[in-house]
Amino acid sequence: MKDLESWLKERRITEVECLVSDITGIARGKITPVSKFMAEKGMRLPESVLLQTVTGDYVEDELYYALLDPADIDMLCRPDSSAVYPVPWALEPTAQVIHDCYDKMGNPIELSCRNQLKKVLALYAEQGWKPVVAPEMEFYLTKRCEDPDLPLLPPIGRSGRQETGRQSFSIDAANEFDPLFEDMYDWCEVQGLDIDTLIHEEGTAQMEINFRHGDPLMLADQVFVFKRTLREAALKHDVVATFMAKPITNEPGSAMHIHQSVLDAATGKSVFANEDGSMSQLFLHHIGGMQRFIPEALPLMAPNVNSFRRFLPDTSAPVNVEWGVENRTCGLRVPDSSPQNRRIENRLPGADANAYLAIAASLLCGYLGMVQQLNPSAPVQGRAFERRNLRLPFTLEQALERMENCSELEQYMGHRFVTGYVAVKRVENENFKKVISSWEREFLLLSV
């Protein structure tokens, strides 16, 4: 707290946003004067915020009180001094501080997404391993739209025109939104977010930001903050930035590709490479674990009904957990690299996923393969779309059923977390079913 207090004083911070991530990835917490923040050294929040749905609802009462204390008590949220960021868009000098969640005995709250990632990293540390990740975030820029029944449209760029057609990797198309991206880069630099490349993706006004590789917890924090930052930069320029997995009909979906590798914690050498530079058994086991368990952990990477609209054959979104070198039709791509930089790109998570949980799940699947010595299938040469084995669940309902029946996920993530997560997503799915879509009105209204 002394380091944190010095940081706040040096920047003359007057307000602190005390944040935790809920299951969806929404920032929940309190805004408090800096004097009160330093006096209380954290905040108290109802533990129930960790079981809140994206619509603001909660799981059914019977399960709610089975997973939480019947008295609906508060949890203790303690600030992490390594997860402190300025809020450059605020009118007053403001900081946002990410907190960890504990019960009154000082035990980490199992329902906390950040605690789940820390738990997975501890598993690696016990083996003397150090995972490294690099997320890639895709998103769309759209016009502001007040009516959710209306389709989203591309925004107006500097030229005064809307973008039309596919503009993959177009510099000029990306430059249409230079003022927005200049603010984004400036704000990210102020916050110390380690972003790297900006590219124009395949979709109309679809972009991608890459993060430099590093510690998984630090990168998950940065993705959490980056989403807030980009949304604020977009709103400043009268544009909307969305991380929905599939926001626009007939356009590509948005992914959060996760590049992951594992180092020997003592030497810093990659455990994915043998001395001669060839693929190590641990590397192959890591892939084997991802192939075996990603279909069970898929709701942590594709958490919404909309997430499954990304998974279409013959698109850049994979429909499998095959693997191959430099093969983008595979769910698990191995980029061409030096042996020390050998890594796996998990192409299955959507941009709508909670970064803490997507990274935790992806690393946990690989870890299970390493400790259980699971062998992968043969690498794919050519189009993986033609392979029919290792199929993924087709719907959120199927995926949730597989997740709740996976003994390994319950063992390592905990019964309360798996049960609570599945329950939250089922409530969201039921809410979705209650809404009549425009497709139903268009094709069924006068035809059936």
UniProtKB/TrEMBL annotation:
Residues 113-448 form the GS catalytic domain. SUPFAM superfamilies: Glutamine synthetase, N-terminal domain, Glutamine synthetase/guanido kinase. It comes from the Bacteria. It holds the Pfam family Gln-synt_C. Gene3D superfamilies: Glutamine synthetase, N-terminal domain (3.10.20.70), Glutamine synthetase/guanido kinase, catalytic domain (3.30.590.10). Its cofactor is Mg(2+). The keyword Transport does not apply. InterPro entries: Gln_synt_N_sf, Gln_synth/guanido_kin_cat_dom, Gln_synth_cat_dom, Gln_synth_gly_rich_site. Keywords: Ligase, Magnesium. The keyword Secreted does not apply. Belongs to the glutamine synthetase family. This is Glutamine synthetase. It comes from Billgrantia ethanolica.
